[in-house]
Write a structure and sequence with these properties.
Helix content of chain B: 55-70%
Shape of chain B: globular
Strand content of chain B: under 5%
Largest interface: A-B, 113 and 126 residues
Distance between the termini of chain A: 39 Å
Structural class of chain A: mainly alpha
Order of helices and strands of chain A: HHHHHH
Number of strands of chain A: 0
Oligomer: heterodimer
Radius of gyration of chain A: 18 Å
Largest sheet of chain A: none
Distance between the termini of chain B: 42 Å
Order of helices and strands of chain B: HHHHHHHH
Helix content of chain A: 55-70%
Mean pLDDT of chain B: 96
Radius of gyration of chain B: 19 Å
Mean pLDDT of chain A: 96
Number of helices of chain A: 6
Structural class of chain B: mainly alpha
Number of helices of chain B: 8
Largest sheet of chain B: none
Chain lengths: ~140, ~190
């Protein structure tokens, strides 16, 4: 069960996202209307603490669990995919109010509508794989 | 204790939890990226037969599926044992007013359900409104996440925390898309019967 620790960390992620309402369509709408600090607080705290954590690993002050230096690959600097792909993701995020992580949590509530949503996510992912060589990156 | 736990948790709890997830995944030699699971699932379902994008050793990504499984379990446990019933989303009065005035909602501040009615039953996918939000929305999110190379966790959190300019560009894209949708397209969708 070497994957048990990942189940536990996914559980921690899920429970906090649920109880801070980050999986609510209404919270994403509120974020895109700039009508509350809430979602910016969640993402902002994650980024600020993440900056420190990432720096601690990259500078070698913390090693990984096997004692090795952590290497994080830089993202390729080819711009169309980030701007076009980002806009398409944002259109979907604003419409559905759900990002992929939230869908897994919501499936756990037993509501079949989110299984249908997951299938739609998989269709979108498949379409990208099929069209990948024909669209600009 | 349960009474405190069942109220809306403050935003910094999730912010701290997200950074703990990031720490743990870096410490175990992984990268935080939830939508990468979608590629793993398509590969596991045999997508490699149709596109080499899905022809990769997906079984090495079982850890990420385990993460997703943990999130699914969290959804069940939270609903059953922690969240109040009914569970209200504690959104602002301004948001309630905007939704009621321009988006065809009829909400009462303090009694906004966690899920809008189009997410309360699978049958809403049979309506035009539900189909657009669930099916078109899901396809856009799935397509866009892979096209951009990540979603909120991989780009907005891990990428920005690693000072990646491409991640900043993608997050700006997320907001361009989200703002266009919410302000110029969504009213036509949510006002559908």
């Amino acid at each position: 069960m070497k994957n048990l620790k990942f189940i536990i960390i996914g559980f921690l992620f899920g429970i906090t996202m649920y109880m801070t309402e980050a999986l609510s369509w209404f919270r994403i709408f509120e974020m895109f209307k700039f009508q509350a600090f809430h979602m910016y607080g969640i993402i902002g705290t994650g980024v600020v603490l993440g900056l420190i954590i990432t720096w601690l690993f990259k500078s070698g002050k913390i090693k990984d669990m096997d004692g090795n230096q952590v290497k994080i690959n830089d993202k390729a600097k080819t711009w169309p995919r980030y701007i076009i792909g980002g806009i398409i993701f944002g259109l979907g995020w604003g419409l559905s109010g759900l990002c992929p992580g939230m869908v897994f949590i919501l499936i756990g509530t037993g509501n079949i509508v989110f299984v249908i949503f997951l299938v739609a996510l998989l269709i979108g992912t498949f379409l990208y794989g099929a069209l990948r060589t024909k669209i600009p990156h | 204790m349960m009474e405190i736990l069942s109220q809306t948790w403050p935003w910094y709890v999730s912010g701290i939890a997200v950074s703990m997830v990031l720490f743990f995944l870096l410490w175990t030699g992984k990268e935080f990226g939830t939508s990468a699971n979608l590629r793993v699932l398509v590969a596991a379902l045999g997508g490699g037969k149709y596109s080499d994008f899905f022809d990769f050793p997906w079984k090495t990504q079982m850890w990420n599926l385990a993460f997703a499984l943990g999130a699914v379990i969290a959804g069940y446990v939270t609903m059953q044992f922690i969240a109040p019933d009914p569970h209200f989303a504690n959104i602002s009065q301004a948001t309630v007013d905007t939704l009621n005035a321009d988006y065809g909602f009829n909400l009462t501040h303090g009694e906004v359900p966690m899920l809008p009615e189009f997410y309360q039953s699978w049958k809403s996918v049979l309506t035009l409104k539900g189909f657009i939000i669930i099916v078109i929305g899901g396809i856009l999110v799935g397509f866009g996440a892979r096209y951009a190379g990540g979603c909120t966790s991989g780009m907005a959190i891990s990428g920005l925390a690693n000072l990646q300019l491409p991640s900043l560009v993608a997050v700006i894209g997320f907001f361009i898309g989200g703002l266009v949708m919410v302000n110029y397209i969504l009213p036509y969708v949510t006002n559908l019967p």
